[in-house]
C-alpha cells in the first residue's frame, strides 16, 4: 500500500459469525496486527455502527480509516494488499490460473454445497438423515474432485490458501456439528469419510489450523444453534 508501516486495522466482528470468521482467518494467516470491535448481533445496530456499515452486518474492516465490507471482498482485499502464501498475484507465473482455481472451488462450495447445510440444522430429527445425504452427494460430486491433489491444502499447497480462508469456517461447522445430533446426524461423518475421503482428510486438517480455531468456541456455538432451532420448532 505504498508504505512499509503496518496498516491500522480494525475488524468489526462477532465470533459466532462464519462470515466474520473468514476475515479473522485471513488476518491471522497474514499475521497482521489488528484491533477487534465486537458487535452484539442480538440487539439493533447502533447508529455509530450503521455509519460504518449501512447494511449493519459483520464483518467490516477499517483499513487505515477506509471501510471495506463483505467477508469475501474483505478477505480478498487483505490477500491482495499483503501478498503471501494465501494466493499468487495475478501477474506472477501461474497466478491467474491459481486464482481461477481457487475462485472455482469457493464458488463450488457456496453454490453447490452450502445451501444443503442449514436445512439439516433446522430439520426435525427424523428428517435429518435424508437431508444430510444431499450434503454428502454434493461434496462427492463437486468438492471431492477438486481436492484430489490437496497436499495437504488446496492445489498441493503446504500452507492455507484463500480457498481455505474462504471456506474453513463453513467446513468447520459441518465437521464440528456432526458431533451434535441435534444439529447434524451422526451418519454424516462416516458417509463423508467413506465417499469423499480427500475432502474428509482435508476438512479434518483445515479445522485444526490455529487461524481457524483461535476465535472458535465449539460448545458455545453449537449450544446457541441448538437453542435457536429448538425455539423455531
Ligand atoms: N454477505 C455478508 C454476510 C454477513 C452476515 O450475514 N453477517 C451476519 C452474522 S453471521 C450479520 O451480521 N447479521 C446481522 C443481521 O442480520 O442483523 C458477508 O459475507 O460479509
UniProtKB/TrEMBL annotation:
Domain GST N-terminal: residue ranges: 7-86
Domain GST C-terminal: start-end pairs: 95-229
Domain of life of the organism encoding this protein: Eukaryota
SUPFAM superfamilies linked: GST C-terminal domain-like, Thioredoxin-like
Gene3D superfamilies: 1.20.1050.10, Glutaredoxin
GO cellular component, one term: cytoplasm
Pfam families, A to Z: GST_N_3
Name of the featured protein: Thioredoxin-like protein
Amino acid at each position: 500500500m505504498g508504505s512499509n508501516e503496518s496498516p491500522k486495522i480494525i475488524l468489526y466482528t462477532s465470533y459466532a459469525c462464519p462470515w466474520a470468521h473468514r476475515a479473522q482467518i485471513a488476518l491471522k494467516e497474514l499475521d497482521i496486527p489488528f484491533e477487534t470491535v465486537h458487535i452484539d448481533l442480538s440487539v439493533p445496530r447502533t447508529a455509530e455502527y450503521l455509519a460504518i456499515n449501512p447494511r449493519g452486518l459483520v464483518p467490516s474492516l477499517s483499513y487505515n480509516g477506509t471501510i471495506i465490507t463483505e467477508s469475501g471482498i474483505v478477505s480478498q482485499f487483505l490477500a491482495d494488499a499483503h501478498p503471501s502464501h494465501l494466493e499468487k498475484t495475478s501477474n506472477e507465473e501461474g497466478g491467474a490460473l491459481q486464482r481461477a482455481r481457487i475462485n472455482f472451488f469457493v464458488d463450488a462450495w457456496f453454490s453447490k454445497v452450502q445451501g444443503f447445510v442449514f436445512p439439516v440444522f433446522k430439520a426435525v430429527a427424523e428428517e435429518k438423515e435424508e437431508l444430510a445425504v444431499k450434503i454428502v452427494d454434493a461434496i462427492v460430486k463437486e468438492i471431492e474432485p477438486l481436492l484430489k491433489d490437496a497436499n495437504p491444502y488446496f492445489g498441493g499447497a503446504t500452507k492455507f490458501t484463500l480457498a481455505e480462508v474462504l471456506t474453513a469456517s463453513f467446513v468447520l461447522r459441518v465437521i464440528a456439528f456432526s458431533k451434535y445430533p441435534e444439529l447434524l446426524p451422526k451418519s454424516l461423518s462416516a458417509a463423508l469419510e467413506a465417499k469423499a475421503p480427500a475432502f474428509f482428510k482435508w476438512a479434518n486438517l483445515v479445522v485444526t489450523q490455529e487461524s481457524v480455531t483461535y476465535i472458535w468456541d465449539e460448545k458455545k456455538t453449537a449450544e446457541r444453534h441448538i437453542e435457536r432451532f429448538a425455539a423455531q420448532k
